[in-house]
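Below is how a single chain appears once it has passed through the pipeline. First comes the sequence as given, then the structure the pipeline wrote out for it. We keep one example in the README because the format questions we get most often are answered faster by looking than by reading.
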Amino acid sequence: MVQSQPPAPRGTPAQGAPERRAIIITGASSGIGAALAQALAAPGRTLVLLGRDLSRLQAVADACHAKGAVCRTGTIDVCDRPAMADFMAAVDRELGIDLLVVSAGIMTGRPRGDAIETGDAAQRLIEVNLIAAVETLHLVLPGMLARGRGEIVIMSSLSGLAPLPDAPAYSASKAGLLFYGLALREAVAKAGIRVVVACPGYVTTPLIAGHRGARPGEVSAPEAARRIVAGLDANKGLIGFPLPLYWLSRIALLAPTFLRQPVMSLFRFHMES
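Resulting structure:
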């Protein structure tokens, strides 16, 4: 289902940043995706918002429209590749995609009383978080390469740097996105494409509503969006926050086991349905 409004006129870019007239955000109905939509909304911009919940998606679109942006919404499962391909191709033909934010994702983890997540849950998570994300990128990249410009934000996590024993599939999906994004950045930089990878720590979103455990350094979704947009404007390859957890995560895999395990034990958790 798609709702649309007339295309927006040419806008004025933020100082030092590309123009970003046409922006697509997956996972835009809640959490960081919704906060990024509102942070990027401005007169002269068209935001194409994808999500699974039409009512929440429309509420985000209304908030963005109130900031002067033109908004379109699409309720598409990111794992439905034919539907995604048709949608992306239509948007790119009409508008030309300047910025893609790959934010759609789910989280599973160890249920209370279990040692690990189920195999089915792990497979579904990797399909949504990693495989569908890479497929989405490749639906947009050809147009950007042909135009010689474009930006991509890939939503990873600090768990991609420091894997969580209670969420192996989530950690694996975010590590895959992290290294795919950093490699892609190098591959397409000379073609005029900016790729940045965001690695937030704990962010207050519906995604972690069932998380039962410590969440040090937790920030709000609007604050996370502010930091990501600032990093995008600065063309930072890797955007990690909060800084203490970011640097702790970066050195975690280099630390010997006898040091790493006690530290990671502070982050143990389980998921409640």
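The domain at 2-271 is CATH 3.40.50.720 (Rossmann fold).

See the next section for the split statistics.
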